[in-house]
Design a protein that fits this description.
Blueprint lengths: L4 E5 L5 E5 L2 E9 L2 E2 L1 H20 L18 H13 L10 H14 L5 E6 L2 E6 L5 E5 L10 E5 L5 E7 L13 E6 L2 H13 L8 E5 H4 L9 E6 L4 H20 L5 E6 L2 E4 L1 H6 E2 L7
Antiparallel strand pairs: 1-2, 2-3, 3-4, 3-5, 5-6, 6-9, 7-8, 8-15, 9-10, 10-13, 11-12, 13-14
Length: about 290
Amino acid sequence: MAYEKTVHMLAGGAVMIECGPMRLVIDARIGRVAQPQEAHQAAEHAVRCLEGVAAAWKSLGRDYRERMSLITNPLALKMIASVQAVGDADLTPMAAVAGTIADAVADFLFQRGMTRVVVDNGGDIAIRSCDGEPVAVGIRPQVDHPGISHTVVLGPERTAWGVATSGIGGRSLTRGVLEAATVVAGDASLADAAATAVANASYIADSGVVRKPAEAIDPHTDIAGLDVTAGVGALAEESKQQAIDQALRRAEGIIDDRIILGAFVACQGRTAMTRFIAERVITPSKKPI
């Protein structure tokens, strides 16, 4: 499948590419010096990644296990590995698609000698860094609102990080009621799959929660046959806390399995963090990089 693409050079040397459903912002640096030509090459690589995954799309729905012999694209196989690592039966490989493409683009640049790479695929972020400096990433308490409430600082003890967010108002459907579930992992593919699982775990039965079959909202959905959240009204405080508690329990379980490193969750003004994130969140006055 071929997509039309538009590439924009941004202030500061980053590149934004819009291609089909994908919008990536790519920042590549050696030291503190931006490398826009390398970022432009990575944008072209991102298109090839998207086209490869799109070619395998029909095999990546709820019946993907029955079609495993047909799947050869390496990114599709990574998507499968990520959702299977998280372990939720209702996750399809598409739960990891944005993070997996972000990882592929970041790795492409890192292998070309960049010392700091940040690839933001619609809020699912792949980070690669070997310059010894920490990277600060802003956390949104509402996935569809630009406001940042917290900042997580990712230190130099790793060269690869992934940060992904799922929730009401995001690009993908959710089965829960959280406005944001942000997960930090060793790569963006795992973070993306896990964020979907953590957000899904927040479902509560409440008169303010509207549920519909996924295909009634998106006829091309990969999770046809499952009910998803179509809207959430004002929740009682105890309902908000129940949703947060459920999401945190799921996140802590994935941490215990050594799949992710931490999570932040938000529901209608309430926020909470797992142990790793709590150690690293700083005041929102520090500007994310």
